[in-house]
Amino acid sequence: MSKLHVTTSVNGQPEEVLCEPHQSLLDVLRDELGLTGTKEGCSTGDCGACSVTLDGRLVCSCLVLAAEAEGKEVGTIEGVANPDGLHVLQQKFLEHAALQCGICTPGFIVAAKVLLERDPNPDETTIRYWLAGNLCRCTGYDKIIRAVQDAATELAHEA
Amino acid sequence: MIKVVFPDHLMPNTEGVRETEVDCDSYRSLVRELERRWPGIEAVLAKTAVAIDGQIYQDAWLETIGPSSEVFFMHRIEGG
Amino acid sequence: MAEAHDLKVIGTRPVRPDGVEKVTGRANFGADLHLPGMIHGKVLRSPYAHARIKSVDVSGALAMEGVLAAVCRSDFPEETDDLGRNVIARDKVLYHGHAVAAVAATTPLLAEQALDAIKVDYDVLEPVLSIDQAIADGATLVNEEMHTNGDASQPASNVAAITKFERGDAEKGFAEADVVVEGEYRVPMAHQGYIEPHACTATINEEGKITVWCSTQGHFDVRTQTAAILGTSISKVKVIASEIGGGFGGKLSVYLEPLAVKLSELSNRPVRMVMNREEVFRATGPTSATWCKAKVGAKKDGTITAATAWLAYEAGAFPGAPVGPGCMSVLAPYDLENFSIEGLDVLVNKPKVAAYRAPGAPQAMHAMECAIDDLARELGMDPIDLRLKNAADEGTQAPYGPKFPAIGLKACLEAAKAHPNYTSPVPEGCGRGVACGFWFNIGMQSSAEVLIREDGTVIINEGSPDIGGSRASMCLMAAETLGIPYERINAHVADTESTGYCNMTGGSRTTFATGMAVVQACEDIIAQCKERAAMTWDIDADQVDWDDGQAVPKPGVNADVDPLSLADIARAWGRTGGPILGRASVNAQGAGAGFSVNWTDLAVDRETGKVDVKAYTAIQDAGRAIHPAYVEGQMQGGAAQGLGWALNEEYIYDDNGVMENAGFLDYRVPVASDLPMIDTQIVEVPNPTHPYGVRGVGETPITAPLAATSNAVCDALGFRVSELPMSPPRLLEAIDSQEG
């Protein structure tokens, strides 16, 4: 079976990949592009560890075929930090100890970033339901929610 | 004389004896005496934990034992 | 030991040294290593829960294009132990998903397809799928050679072991009681649920030197286990621990590593093997399903006069359920003279159980804490007051034998009683439930090397895979000991050839034992620094003090000199003898037990059976919280796991022994919208055997929530549901049968 030639953009950089038709965007990001920050937790779209953005929309990259990224803009954890430093969310996750093992952290940060872009002032319930697609087994979510709340407050002050 | 207590699962190795007294001042000499009474028990004790006066040791090889100490053998605890 | 008010950095909340790598996605976990020429391994797993293997033929797979190696039982030394028999099945498959063969191919898809070409001839046998089935007369035997407690004079049995603990006379104690309550409880098999599946990459060179990169809680154990299963020596095996995406006890044994090494040997290529989520559920090590009975009696004033427990644990395919620790923890919070506990280790055709956070304790303590709760209700006593009346304290003889040294149970109970979340009334429509928690905590062996750079900054090398922020705690303890800023220290988890021997990260031992080694290695550094200063000042080393990160002459010593910092000494170390490194190794004894009290307020929707957890509070004795945020994190994470297990998590098996819910959709762990904020309070009753008073904190948090949740549901509904999980269908059925 011959490979597909996919032209896409990842974190603002143009990328061309050769991939199998069945390969997911997750597979291609990790194994073809070497961007291993996006993680595989379940491959069935249930855990959110593979969260990326596709044209600004939050998706599970394990449920997106690599071929579907053709002509689209993919955003991964590797593209979250600013050129001059960490994104506020990343900083707050560190300050609030919102990670223990850290495997779910990239997915949470990508997901929370999309939330705060859409709703700069979410209440606790909104945050919890938005992040319900990201599983964490270590933290019980408490410090993650507080980190997102704090990031929202700080981003509002910066604005 | 120190008091030595065995848990249920070690009693097959002590001919059913649960509690005994031993004259010794170190864990090493305790084990030697127990092996003298019940040959073969030393190998079994190597896989147990022991509490000496309330402190639990997975490896008590270096420990001294006071004259009125209490020694309890017990399951090794691992954890997860 | 330093008093809390003398500590400068311990107790603060700095950013962890590995933090930036983790929030940017740079940190490398088990599946993140990419080696040139790497190929992919996959496992063929048994479609039957119980069968004899008549033959395995991998030749069909080997003939396929892209397949470079295939292995089965004949590729591994025949003489092995249960772990080896679990890694690859020998004469029988003992659970659905048991590994039978493995292949390696140039792509994961080709490897997957090659599995279909492997021919296995099975003689299918009837599976044993519950304790009830396993102990029934005439039960099918999981292992025809298994005799209870090794007693070959008795017939073969599925009960591998019976354990007993007794003191006093329980029958007499019950006769003296004014109130006796009893109950029977079922807790399901549950999975640790770590988000990162097992993953490893293995290579072997022409000298037979093996390198394994893997996600593990104990890379020295990976070395031991892999070498043993392959029949090679540990000197040929180097293991590099990747960052680990959760373990909770489930990553203490190898599953893939020996297979990956063998495939690498046969293919002459590096081999990566990663489990998918289904495999993680079906074929790693969940924890025991249990059937427990608890009975407790007390006088009118609440004094407990006797208690008994019967605790039957499913071990899975091989013996070794954590029933011993279950028996030892079930009554640990109580000071009582008369009790009798019996525990059973029962074989069933399910995966071999592995440790899951305080292994054995959650199930047993659920039973007894529910019975204690019913006792409080019968007596008309507040559940915390009842516990305070009977609480174990310093000097109490623990049910497992020794007298407790200083412990924090009473401190936790008193803190709970005074806590605003407890003094506040139960919200409208809710029930409240309380429970105690406990874990022994362990010490064991750790090593640490502390290296100084020429600029006086510090590197710590140790061998404890970091599952929850332990590197931050190591840096805090080093900063406190050396008297230098936290920011000047970095900590690494080094591989098995680069640091001294270290037992696994588990048992709540890391901050305690590895911390102890780090502190001692820093003290080694200080001693050397004093010598270098003494040389510089031309005085004796015993005339030098180390104060706030600097060498200074002792008071009264006649030496008009400026203090020398670690940086000063390092800069000049060429003149005074060479580079400075410190080291220590410990076999840490005296780990302090950790007690907790948890309570929760929740509401039950009687129409749907759904539970809404409104509030959860956890109070725990940490001895000394080195980094309070990570201690709180352990308390919150354990509470969440306990809530999930109590309310939704269970392995659902069909009659053939096939797990029906092997995915995160139907094995429903708590998500962010299921939980409230989890309030915590850290109590500190220092443990005198640790330089800073540390007690382990990682495991105790899961031991109270099962009962706290059950007790809250009982309070909300007015009757008890004794089978977990209290999922909506189960609660609805219970509600309907109460009302009907």
From TrEMBL, chain A:
Residues 4-80 form the 2Fe-2S ferredoxin-type domain. GO terms for molecular function: 2 iron, 2 sulfur cluster binding; metal ion binding; oxidoreductase activity. Pathway: Alkaloid degradation; nicotine degradation. Signal peptide: none annotated. Pfam families: Fer2, Fer2_2. Keywords: 2Fe-2S, Iron, Iron-sulfur, Metal-binding, Oxidoreductase. PANTHER family: OXIDOREDUCTASE WITH IRON-SULFUR SUBUNIT. This is Aerobic-type carbon monoxide dehydrogenase, small subunit CoxS/CutS homologs.
